[in-house]
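Researcher: Here's the sequence for the chain we discussed earlier.
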Amino acid sequence: MQAQQGNGNGGPEPVAPLAGFTVGVTAARRADELGALLERRGATVLRAPVLRIVPLIDDAELLATTKQLLDDAPDIVVATTAIGFRGWIEAADGWGLGEALLRRLGEAELLARGPKVRGAVRAAGLTEAWSPASESMAEVLERLLEEGVDGRRVAVQLHGEPLPGFIESLRVAGARVVAVPVYRWLPPEDIAPVDRLLDAVVARSIDAVSFTSAPAAASLLDRAGQRGQLDAILAAFRRDVLVACVGPVTALPLQAHDIPTFQPERFRLGPLVQVIARELPGRVRPLPVAGHEVEIRGQAAVVDGFLRPVPPAGMALLRALARRPGWVVSRADLLRVLPGAGRDEHAVETAMARLRAALGAPKLIQTVVKRGYRLALDPHADKYAPGAAL
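Model: Thanks. This is the structure I predict for it:
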């Protein structure tokens, strides 16, 4: 089914793949770009930068490491990211050390991890000695170990991401490794958006969370632990809330907690968004209800191909009915899922009336006198009955 929505002129237009879904963005760097890509596909975006980047010009640790390399020249330099390499050179310029650093790098064997880094190296007026076509750090490590690093001084430009086993393997092989900490992470100055994201995950009012760095993933779990929410967050991520990571390194802290993750084949923001836009709609099963076809998304329903935004109270009722489509759900059970309803079952009737109006097809939900409400599942829809294989 191709979902439609009105275009303002009476004609239908395709419903965006992420319309009705809410996606959390934990990124600090390029958060606006990622958010815009998601919104372009219809998503509601909840921005919650989990970490902030230390400005390079203010980073005393990077300055100290740079001076150390100028005093004791490296034999080999490994550049891992284009933006990190450019940022390092620009920061050195700001300290008045740019020309000296370029001379040192030009005297070393300079390895660039992939074509983007190679472009940054050449833009700085340098020439790389070698670059793998695969962009794989494993291939860089293999080359270094094959040529031998015993007794050699190797500078590795980091980028806020862990390099599992890379530095350790070089040290075991006898290298004197200097880690260059480009773009270090610190907690955000305002933690409130992170806490709101965690609360949304626990409440299942968010459908997916995206991660673009391993430190952000680890930091979010740490914050959940500090708030006493870790078990609840893990349960949500394992069963209900989709977790999308830009690549396998980013996914490591999550997979360590047995959280299933989805990753694109190409470790870029565009493919990451494509994964989310494929997986979230793929989790929705269409239901034949009262002669209509209904999809229940995170914060909306799609009825016969038209997007129908539904208020939070209505979505809580609709999800409760959809858990056992065709079965009667009592007012008391519906009252329990209704946010902030208290003990008055009249609140269920009020929310139900608003839900029916939002859906635009009142007969989708049938009132069963003195018992409750049910989704009016079509009689032939045996495969949707509770207990049937999905």
